[in-house]
Design a protein that fits this description.
By secondary structure, this protein is α/β, with parallel strands linked by helices. It has a single domain, classed as 3-Layer(aba) Sandwich (Rossmann fold). 33% of the residues lie in helices and 25% in strands. It is built from 9 helices and 16 strands. The strands form 5 sheets. The chain has an 8-stranded mixed beta sheet, sandwiched between helices. A two-stranded antiparallel sheet has the order 1-2. It has a two-stranded antiparallel ribbon with strand order 4-5. It is globular. The N and C termini lie far apart (46 Å). The structure holds cytidine-5'-triphosphate. The site of cytidine-5'-triphosphate has 16 residues, from helix 6 and strand 11.
Length: 272
Amino acid sequence: MNRKMWEHPATQRNVAQLVADGVALLGPATGEQACGEVGLGRMLEVEELYAALVAFLQPKSLAGRRVLLTAGPTFEALDPVRGLTNRSSGKMGFALARACAEAGADVTLVAGPVSLATPIGVRRIDVTSALEMREAVLAQLPTDIFIGVAAVADYRPAAPAAHKIKKGAPTLSLELVANPDILAEVAARPDAPFCVGFAAESQQLAEYAEAKRRIKRLPLVVGNLVQDGLGGETNTVTLFDAAGAHPLPPGDKLEIARAIVRHIAEMSHAHD
Ligand code: CTP
């Protein structure tokens, strides 16, 4: 409808009544209208309607829970134009944020530098470096569930240059210092939420994932081989918890995210 029709008090009264009756509204979207005006009143795009309907029909296994996630790579500045980063696409973390929102959770996603669309209903905080990611995460605590999906850089340049580093010297050495481990820090707090870690390994997945679970004291670690997941649309993961290893069937990242959410919902309810 036209934006004036949408904004009309009679329309708004009726909409408020429908919402009070428990009717879910999809939209309206804002943008150009057939009459040439711009504003609220457009139908959502078909893909958005489809995603919202699918989300509506998911089991609400995390209703009333607060979930905080990290996703994507971090970027550690060397100088104003260069830095150290990695090939994490953020897709798995964004899919998990979406699956948590579909399951009825109140979701906050702290995202490193990626150009992915924010899933519907997810609150997003953009950060660049590991130190910024840590600050953003700590500022959002307490939460019920924390899922560290980000590929946080383990090291950062010790002294980033204020100005662009000029070429000339035959060799250039970089001194790196360790970044804080965000997940381990959150898991060690007295008010620790139910913490889930990711282990992306290039070999010996079970040993390394299980070791991360024990060292960081996590109830659940999601392990995958980097050759299966990094950057792509699909993934193959195994869940590691106190009961052992649970391989999930390979699938697209959203299907896998929904399966992980089901596991987290069962485990975290038992944890309460
Ligand atoms: N993680 C984190 N902060 C860091 C490093 C990792 O929060 N500084 C989290 C990741 O989000 C992931 C988990 O810890 O959930 C595992 O990260 P990973 O980099 O695979 O493990 P590391 O402990 O850094 O070990 P390594 O790099 O030696 O494999």
